[in-house]
C-alpha cells in the first residue's frame, strides 16, 4: 500500500514507444529518474520540475501514464485533478511509470524564474533505461528503496493570489527519497538541478486585470507575478506597500485608529491559507498568499486619499502622495518577520520596541510611520499626526490633555529620518484606546485574513476575535459590512459578475458546439433567466438514458436570492445524469414554464417523456402543457418527507414506526390488491395518515397505477449533491457558482467514463446484481410449454410468460425492465440468452453512450478577458431585484378591541380582586 498518500514516480524520457503483438506498448531507450509526490503536490510544480530535470521547454512538455492493468492506452496529465486521480488509481502501488515528452530547451527567463534559487532536485543516479515490457503478463516488480536526500519544491510553492502575490522569504525545502528502478543502473555523481523555489521578492502585475482576477483565480504560476531582486542578496527584502496619511482639513475632531499594516498583515503575509479555486475538474482548495501590494489601491491613492487614510491629520499640511517599500525591521532586527508558529500575542508584544526614543533613526518617513502604527497598537493608544509630510512628522495622543508627543524629521547629513523629540508617558489613562474607531481598510484587511482561514466565518465570531486580539469592540453592522467588502476583494464583486454572463454564454457555445446557453434580461437590464445545457448531456440523455427526467429547484444561496432549476436523468446504473439547468430570479410558474420550453427545444425527442417533481410545486399542469404526450409523477422522496411531517396521533396497532414502511410498500406494489393491502394496514394504525395517503392521486405515484417510466424505486433526494455544492460556494459570485456546477458535471462524466472502462459484464453493475438474484430464484421453477411464445411457470402459483411481448403475469418484467425469475426459467429451458431480453437502457453499451461525450474546458476568465477586452465584450447586466422576505418586512401592529375580562372574586371573603388561594383576610 502507498504510505500516507505518497507515490514514487519513475519519470522516463528520451525513449520511444513500441507496439507489441498483443497491442500493448513498451518504452525503449531513454533514461529514468524517480521523484516522490503526494496528494498535496500541484501539477504545475511537477511539470516545472520535470521540465528542468529533462531540459525540456515548459509549454511543450507532456506527461503521460498507463492505468493499472491497461498498457494499451496512454492517459495525459494536464491538471491538478488529473494528478490526484492518477495517485488514486495507483493507491495500491508504491511506484508509477510516467513518460515525459517535449521539445528540448528549458528557458527559465521565458518563465520569469530567477536564475538563483536556493534549493534543487538532487538526483543520486542516472538510470540508463533498457526496454521494459508493458504487457499485462509482466507483473510489476517492487523497487528497492534507497533513501537519498532530495531537495524538492514544497507543494504550493507558487502562491496564487486573485490580484497580487507578495512573498517575503523563501519557503523551507522539504526532503524526499529516490527509488531505484529494477533496470540496468549506471551510477554517476549526484547531479543538482535548480528547483522553482520562490525566494526573491515578487512584485504585482499590472492592475488592469485586477477586476477580473477577483472573479476567478488561475493555476498558472507564471501569469500571476514577475520576479525581481538582487541575485547577490543573502536574503530577500520583504516588500509591503505603505499607505500614506492624507491631509484633510475636515479631520480636526476625528479620532481614528492609526492602523494600516496590521498584526494579521504581518503575521499572514507569508502564510499560505485556504481559498477556493475553480478549474475544469471541480472546485478545489489552493494555497494563496496574502495580498498587501494591490496596485489598484496604490493607483487610486490620490483619488481616494481620505478613504485610504490611516492617520487623519488636523493641520492643512501638504502631503506628498508616494508609495515605497518598507522593510519590517527595527534597528536592523527582523523580529517582526514572524513564522506561522509565532502567536499573534507575541508578535504584537514585539512591536512595543518599534519606537525606542530620541535618536532612533529610520530609512524613510514611511518606515517611521509603519513603526509608529505598530507601536501604538502594541501600547494600546490612538494618536493623530499634526504635521505629516516626507520631511517631518509630529504626532500627539488624541486624548485631551495627554502628555504623549513625538516629533521626527529628515536629517540630510545622515540620510535618515530621526526622532528628535518624544514624551513617552501618557497621562490619559488609556482613554484614547476606548475611543478608537478602526478605519475601513484596516478592518477589511483583518477580515480578509479570517475569511481565508475559514470562508464561512460569522460576523459575531469575527467581532469576538478582533476584540480578543486588539481590544476593539465592533458592532454587528460594522463587521457585516467589512465582510462584504473583504469578500468582494477576495472573490470579486457579486454585482459586477452579472456583466460577464453574456460573454460566458458566448464562450460556452463556442467551446462546446451543439450546447445551448440562453440569457434573458428585462427592459431595465436586470437579470431574469439563464438556461444551460451541454451537448455532452443532451447526447448522453438521448442515446443512453430512459425518457425520464426529475425536476427540482433549490436556492443559489446568494444575496440576490436566485433559484437553480435542474433537470436530471437516471443512467443505466441508477446514477443521476444532469441534462440541463437554469438560474432564475424567482421560482414561479412562468419561470418553470420557460425552463420546460427551453428543455423541449433542446431535447427534441418524439418518444413520450416521464417527468417527476415535488407534488407541492404543482408542476403537473406546466409539464403537460409543454409536453403533450408526457406522464407526470410525484417524487417518492418528497411524498415520504411530507407524509412523515403530517403524521399525528393517536396511533394504534403496529404504531407510528410502521407507517413509512407501509407507505413505501403501497407505492411499490405492482398490483392494485397489493396497494389496497398496505393502505389498509396504514388505516389500522392511523385513520388520519390513511386519509392523507388516499387524497393523493394513486396514478401519479404508485407502480400499480402509474403509466409512465418506472421511477418510484428512487427514494433519495436527487438535488442533494447540488445543495451541498452550493452550500460550499455560497459566498462566490454567480459566474464562479456556475463554474462550480459545470465542474461537478464534468467530474461526474469523467468519473463514469473511467469506471465503466473497467466493467466487463453485459449490464451495469447494479442491474447485473439484480439479474443474478432472479437467476438464482429461477433454478427451482418448473416450466410447461404451451406454444412457441407462451409458457406456464409453476412455483407457489402459476405465471404465464410471453417472450414475444416481454411480459409475465407477475408484472415484474414490465415494471423493472429486467426479466423476472419466471421468464429466466423459460430462457434456461429454451436455450435463450437472458441478456437479449433486458432493457437496452441497462446495458453497458448504453451506459458508455451516456457518458461518451465530454464537456470541453471553458476558457479561464482571467486568461481570456483583460480589462479593456471586458469593456468591449460585456453587456451591462444588473442583478435581479430582491424582495425582502415576509419575516423581515415591517408589519403594522393592528390594535384589537379591548376584551372584557371576568372579574375575580374570592369565595372565602367574597371580596373582588383576588381568589381563595391568595386570600389574606382573617375571619
TrEMBL record:
Residues 799-831 form the SWIM-type domain. One of its GO terms (molecular function) is zinc ion binding. It comes from the Eukaryota. Pfam families: DBD_Tnp_Mut, MULE, PB1, SWIM. InterPro entries: MULE_transposase_dom, PB1_dom, Transposase_MuDR, Znf_PMZ, Znf_SWIM. Keywords: Metal-binding, Zinc, Zinc-finger. Residues 306-323 have a biased composition (Polar residues). Residues 289-332 are annotated as: Disordered. This is SWIM-type domain-containing protein. It comes from Vitis rotundifolia (Muscadine grape).
